[in-house]
C-alpha cells in the first residue's frame, strides 16, 4: 500500500500519526509512517527544543512532523494572570463544587505549582514555530485551520510541507488559498476539536473541493487497516490517526487513563466545548456529564475555558479514578482493547489494509 | 462489483435503496438493485395493497422489499383522538405561534382533512405487515430495531429475508439473537432516525460483532461509488441508501422540497427529536431552528411528537417555502445538486464503484 504521499513525505506507508508523546512519534516514524508531535503541551520553549533535539538524533534523518495550535484569528491574549480575571467567579465555583462532588482530592504542594496548558495561547504557539524551524521536521500542521500567512511563508522557506485540518469543504478551499500543501479532512468521529460532518461524507467532499493535485489525509474514525482502505477508497492519499496511539506501550499514560481507554466503547465519547471552548470530542464520563447538568454554567470562549479547567484537569488526572479522566479521544476508542507497542499496531494496520485491498480486488 | 448479497437477494449489484415512493423503488429494482418501499406513509392498508399490486406487476418477478416502522416495545397506543389528549396545550400553542411567525398559511378546506401520519402507530404497522405478506416482497426491514418475534416468524414462513437497522454493535447482536438475517449498520450521517456513531467506526464494529455469516449493509453517508467501495472496504456486503433518491426524477417532490434539497450542503442538516420524539436527522432550516429556541418546549415521546407536528408538516410542505420544509435527509444531501433519473444515478454509482475498486487494485 503506497500512494504519492509516500514520495512527497519520504515515508514507506501513508500513515501519519499524531501524538503529544515524542516516544510514540519516534516509533511511528521508525515503522515507516510519519510521526507528528503535538506541541500544545509545551509551556516552555526550551523543553520543546530539547524534545526535538532528541527526535532529530533518535530518527537520524527519518522524517517527522510537528503540530501547533494556532487559531486563524488572534484571540484574547495576555498572561494567565490577566486572562484569569476574565473568568467569572461562578464558573470557578462550579468547577470547585463539581470536583468536590466527584470525590476528586486537591493536588499536593509540588503538583499545584503547574501553570496549566498555555499552548492554546497564540504567543506561545509562535514560540513553538520558532523552535521547530531550528530543527528538522518535514511537516508542520495546524490543528485549527491554516497557519497565519507569515508562518506558512517561513515554513516553506525552510522546505517544510504545510498541513492544516479542515472539518468542512469550504474551510479546505480557504486553506488552499492560504498556501497549505496538504489538507487533513477531519470527520465528526475524531477526538479533540472536531466538526459535525462524518468522515464518510467529508473525505470525498474535501477531495473534490481541493482537486487532484492536493493530497488529502482522512482523519476521524481511522483505527484499523479496513478503515485505511476505506479512506483510500474515498479518495484520500493517506490517513491521519491520533486516538489509537493513546493505547500504545510507548504512550506514558496513567493507570486510570489506560483503564478508561481500554474500557470505553465507541458510544462512550461526547462532543463538547468544556475542554477548550471549541467543540472537541472527549471520553464521556462523570466529569463531562457534570457539565450537561441544567445548573452547569455555559462554557467560556477559547482560551478562557481551558485556563478555567486546566487546574481541574490536573486534579482529575491525579485522582487515579478512571471515571473522571479528562481526555480527548475519538469514537475509535471502542477498538482499543489492549496495550501494544507502536510497531505492532503499525504492522497490523498495514497488513489489514493490504488484505482489504486484496479482498476488494476480487469483487 | 458483486458480493454474496447479490445471490442472497437475487440482485445484480449490492445496492439497496429505500424510498417512500413506489416509482423510485421500481426504478431501483429495474436497475439491478433492491428497491425497498417505506410503508410508514400508508395510513390506509388498502392503499398499500394497491401500491404493492402495482409493484408486483411492474417488476414482474424482480425482487423488492418493504420497510415497516415497528418499535421494539409496543408504545402508547390509541386512536389519534385519544392520543391527542395527551399532547399539552402549550405544545400546540408553540407550534401554532411558530407557524405564524414563519409566515406559513393555514391549509385549504380540502387539505385540512388529512389525518397525519399514523404509520408510527404499532397497530397500523401490523396491518402493513399483514398486507405485505399477501404480496411478493423479497425482504422486510424494520427501521426501529428487530421486528417483533411473531412478525419475524411469519415473514420467514413466507420465505422473506428479514433486515433490521442498528446504530450500535450491541443492538446488532440482539437483532441476530431475535432472528434477523441482515443487519443494516446505520451511521450518524444518515437521514431520519439515527444514532451517534459515524459510519467509518460503526460499520466494521457491526461486521465484527455479527461475524462472517451475517451480511451487513452500510447506511449513512452513502451517495457515490467511492462511498460504496469504502463501505465494502469496511466489511459491508452492500449498501443501504435512502437520501439520494429524494433528488431523482421519479420522486414526486414539491418544487420547494426540491429546491431545498438541491441548495443544501452537507452542514445543512441537524439531528433532532422534533420529527418523531426519537433523534432523527432533518434538513436544518427555520422550522428546526425554531425548536432550538430557549423558549421552545421539550419534544414529546413517540408517537405523540409526530401527532403534534403532522398537521404542521402539511402546512409547511404546502407553504411552498424551501426554508421551512420538514424533511428527513442525511449529510449526503450536499452531493445532491441536480435532478436525475434513478437509472442514471444507479449507473453512475456502479461505474464509480468499479473505477474505485480498479484504482485501489493498483496501490
Task: Please tell me about this protein's structure.
2 copies of one chain form a homodimer. With 363 residues, chain A is of the alpha/beta class. Chain A folds into 2 domains: 1-77 and 121-250 and 341-363, TIM Barrel (Alpha-Beta Barrel); 78-111 and 257-339, no CATH class. Helix content of chain A is 40%, strand content 13%. Chain A is built from 14 helices and 11 strands. The first copy, chain A, has helices at residues 4-9, 22-30, 45-59, 80-84, 89-101, 122-132, 149-157, 169-177, 199-210, 225-233, 255-263, 286-290, 304-318, 342-361; strands spanning 15-19, 34-38, 64-68, 139-142, 161-166, 182-186, 192-193, 216-219, 238-241, 269-272, 280-283. In chain A, the strands form 2 sheets. Chain A has an 8-stranded parallel beta barrel, surrounded by 6 helices. A 3-stranded antiparallel beta sheet of chain A has the order 7-11-10, with no helix packed on it. Chain A is globular, with a radius of gyration of 20 Å. The relative contact order of chain A is 0.16. Chains A, B: One of its GO terms (molecular function) is dioxygenase activity. Chains A, B: This is NAD(P)H-dependent flavin oxidoreductase YrpB (Nitropropane dioxygenase family).
